[in-house]
Amino acid sequence: MRKKVLWIEDGALFEAQHLTGPVFNSRKYDLDIALTISDAERELFNNEYDIIIVDIRMDPGDMPKWIKLYQNAGRDKLHARLGLMLLYALFKNDEENNILKVVPKWIETKRFGILTVENYKELEDNLKELGLESIPFKQKSARLKATALLEIIEEVEKEI
Q1: What is the CATH number of the domain that holds 24?
Q2: Is 0.85 topped by the overall pTM?
Q3: What are phi and psi of 146, to 5 degrees?
Q4: How many domains does the chain have?
Q5: Distances (CA, A) of 107 to 17, 38, 115, 138
Q6: Torsion of Cα atoms, 116 then 79 then 66 then 110, to 10°
Q7: What is the 3-state secondary structure (H, E, C) of the chain?
Q8: I need a labelling partner for 73 at 20 to 30 A (CA). Which of 82, 84, 99, 152 fits?
Q9: Alpha-carbon distance 80 to 59, whole Å?
Q10: Listing from the earlier edge strand, what are the strands of the sheet with 51-54?
Q11: Are the beta carbons of 2 and 29 closer than 8 angstroms?
Q12: Which domain holds residue 103?
């Protein structure tokens, strides 16, 4: 049975052919893409995924709570880091990070990986705080291999 994968990536439409081709060609995964954090929240609450790959810099989408967080951060993906805020809401759903009223019961750290332009060092303290310091992590760059998405999916799969 194919593993169900959610890729949370606002640039997926531009990167789709380059990065999703190897995933589809592997025939091992059913890939869904969330283009905004609002889309990601809907997917996480309506479907259970084996593997979730998150980008840190994301657009808010249409949900008012994500729009407000984005606006409060200066309407800038670099500073808003809504992907990171989603991870805080999922794994540290305390009073400060209570963006989500509840967290789906199937959510667990071993299902997650990060594919983003930030380097690991920039996010290390946050990831440690969330218990995510050892999850698969790939930094995007201009020379990103076409197999990068497939590789990180396979790294997460080894953990589940």
Answers
A1: 3.40.50.2300
A2: yes
A3: -60, -25
A4: 1
A5: 28, 17, 18, 21
A6: 30
A7: CCEEEEEECCCHHHHHHHHHHHHHHHCCEEEEEECCHHHHHHHHHHCCCCEEEECCCCCCCCCHHHHHHHHHCCCCHHHHCHHHHHHHHHHCCCCCCCCCCCCCCCCCHHHEEEEECCCHHHHHHHHHHHCCCCCCEEECCCCCCCCHHHHHHHHHHHHC
A8: 152
A9: 9
A10: 29-34, 3-8, 51-54, 112-116, 137-139
A11: yes
A12: 3-159
Residue with tokens 């760059």: 141
pLDDT digits (tens, 9 = 90+) for 15-68: 667 889 899 999 999 999 999 999 999 999 999 999 999 999 999 999 999 999
Q: Which residues contact 134 (CB under 8 A, 6 or more apart)?
A: none
Residue found by looking up tokens 């049975």 in the block: 1
Please state, in angstroms and rounded to a whole number, the distance separating the CA atoms of residues 160 and 151: 15
Report the distance separating Cα 3 and Cα 30, nearest Å: 6
